[in-house]
Amino acid sequence: MANIINLDKVGKTYPAGRIFDEVSLGVDDADRIGVVGLNGAGKTTLLRMLTKAEEPDEGRVTHRRDLRVSALPQNLDLPPTATVRDVIIGTAWLPAAFAAEHEWAGDAGVRTVLNGLGMPHLGLDAPVGPMSGGERRRIAIAALLVRPADLLILDEPTNHLDVAGIAWLARHLLQRRGALMVVTHDRWFLDAVCTTTWEVADATVRAYEGGYAAWTLARAERLRVAAEAESRRQNLLRKEIAWLRRGPPARTSKPKFRIDAANALIADVPPARDTVSLQRLAVTRLGKQVYELSKVDLRAGERTLLSEVDWLVGPGDRIAILGANGAGKTTLLRVLAGVRDPDGGRLLRGSTVRAAFLSQELKELPSGLRLLEAVEEVAKRVKLGDRELTAAQLAEVFGFSGARVWTPVADLSGGERRRLQLLRLLATEPNVLLLDEPTNDLDIDTLAALEDLLDSWPGTIVVASHDRYLVERVADVVYGMFGDGNLVHLPGGVDEYLERIVGAEEGFGTGTAPAASAGREKAADLRASDKDARAAKKELSKLERSMDRLTQKEAALHAQLAEHATDYTRITALDAELRAVQEEKALIEEQWLALAEIAG
User: Fold this and answer.
1) Which of 68, 117, 465, 567 shows its CA 20 to 30 Å from the CA of 285?
2) Do 291-518 and 3-215 have the same topology in CATH?
3) CB neighbour list of residue 160: distance below 8 Å, 6 or more residues apart
4) How does DSSP assign 533-579, residue by residue?
């Protein structure tokens, strides 16, 4: 591997504080790096410095000569008058991809990219201006993928992609030559694509080997070591302070080295990290009836999203809805939330239902207010367990502390605005949560806090998400919308959804969802391996329980051997039993190791 980018003692400061302090890192030509960290920690700033779009205040960033860097920014600005041709193969946004327009038809790679991203229906002359934000972002990704680059930098590439599109993109990036750097909240994607993880926190960047799972384990170990070091520091501090207080009353001075040691311990306090501890607020009592759909029709223009669908949502149900972009997931949630009416049939809503709808849009936030005022607009006091909190205290629970509560809503980052949106919803004491892509713009720590909150949620949850990690953790039941007018129960969850897409008809306009072919290639490869991995994980759990049981039995036999040390006959029998237990345990350990490789 050859080095292509170096950061040498890089520092960066904004009015809000120090973002980076003497960061030194390197990128090699075959690296696949995932960048994680809290919202506002500096991930996007790091990418901008790597591409030299932004200069550091101290230190330097050096590139290999003739380095080709392609980058997808988080906020995309495409010319409104441009066409698909201009963006993907022209020069409207990036350097021209091809020498001649006829190569569009002759280059299978371009069409493969559009198919994989769920846009095979687009033509060269389709205007970009009227397209949705998701479609424009996918066109921008396609423009990057069809161009050769030594380093590809993607900021939140999985936003606006469905489950199948994310799976296809992961496979495409694994086959692509060159270095890759990606900022994403999608933990499955991090594990599937990345071999190194950079954590941006505490004005520095820490590098870990492996994807999300490896980073989680390494970070847990680092926090454990830090906690032990802090515990030792506190113990030393207590001893030094106790020594300074001790001694005969006549002593009027203390040795200076003792005072200096105590002062150093007091000063050596690690900086407090921002934490998000989402907690469940009060929930209004939910009756026996939640939603009942009878022969419901839903349409979007001329397209039929649902046709005569019967569906029952009960108290405590935890439901995930999967589907391609444009399949109708958001429309269905808007109907449940009462934002729009069905186009036919009947919707019965329980009399005790108090629904909170977390939409993909952030426009419902009052941008003219400050953060605390936006919370007080919903509730000035709320119940959290047996405590009553003010709006300011509630904001602190959700990670907005100190002077941050006076920040104008318009100045918050995307993740912070998303968190504020969630806070305002929970403050209304809902008993039904309708979540439309809740993971968009949230950092991984906030996602973990959100999932922990949803784990203990006593009400009903209906979530539309492309984040398979969230779906598999939060939902008990999965439904799919495939563009054929049906709402299909999927007992096999995400895996069954991908299987059905693989088995769907080729082409569009035949009743399949607009992105029905997006994950065919990836899903075909992963279908068997995913099933094997799931089966292996279940078997691993059984083996682990068996090992625990045998370990306990082994300890009991050792205790009995010590107890009957003088009884030769008893010792012989116990020893034979112990050997059998140890042999069985060794066999199970070998099986466990073999299955652990399959489970990944």
Assistant:
1) 465
2) yes
3) 133, 134, 135, 137, 138, 325
4) HHHHHHHHHHHHHHHHHHHHHHHHHHHHHHHTTT-HHHHHHHHHHHH
Give the rounded distance of the alpha carbon of 7 from its chain centre: 27
Cα 197 to Cα 219: distance, rounded to the nearest angstrom? 11
Q: How many CA atoms lie within 13 Å of 298's alpha carbon, on the beta-carbon side?
A: 27
Tell me the C-alpha distance between 511 and 482, whole Å: 8
Residue 244: DSSP 8-state:
H
DSSP state of 402: G
Q: For residue 571, which amino acid is it?
A: I
**What confidence tier does 106 reach under pLDDT thresholds 50, 70, 90?**
very low
Helices (H) and strands (E) in the chain, counts: 18, 20
Q: Are strands 460-464 and 432-436 parallel, antiparallel or unpaired?
A: parallel
Mean pLDDT, residues 294-304: 89
Cβ atoms of residues 85 and 33 within 8 Å: no
Q: Which CATH number fits domain 291-518: 2.160.10.10, 3.40.718.10, 3.40.50.300, 2.60.120.280?
A: 3.40.50.300
C-beta neighbour count of 569 within 10 angstroms: 8
Radius of gyration (C-alpha) of the chain in whole angstroms: 28
Other CB atoms within a 10 A radius of the CB of residue 364 amount to 10
pTM (whole model) above 0.70? no
Chain CA centroid to CA 95, Å: 32
What is the rounded CA–CA span in Å between residue 306 and residue 483?
8
> DSSP letters along 177-189, please?
-SEEEEE-S-HHH
Paired tokens of 576: 């034979």
142, with CB counted inside 10 A (0-12, 13-18, 19+), is buried
- The residue type of 526 is L
- Topology of the domain covering 3-215: Rossmann fold (3.40.50)
pLDDT for residue 241: 66
Burial of 395 (0-12, 13-18, 19+ CB in 10 A): buried
| In the chain, where the domains are located | 3-215, 291-518, 529-599
Contact residues for 234 (Cβ-Cβ < 8 A; gap 6+): none
Using DSSP's 3-state secondary structure scheme, residue 469 falls into helix
**Residues whose CB is less than 8 angstroms from the CB of residue 135 and which lie 6 or more positions away in sequence, other chains included:** 119, 160, 325
Q: How far is CA 75 from the centre of its chain?
A: 19
Only one residue has tokens 């790679």, namely 109
* Structure token pair of residue 370: 């400050």
Residue range 408-467, pLDDT digits in tens = 888 887 778 888 888 888 888 888 999 998 887 777 777 877 787 777 777 899 999 888
How many Cα atoms occupy the beta-carbon half-sphere of 7 within 13 Å? Answer: 25
Angstrom distance (rounded) from CA 539 to CA 532: 10
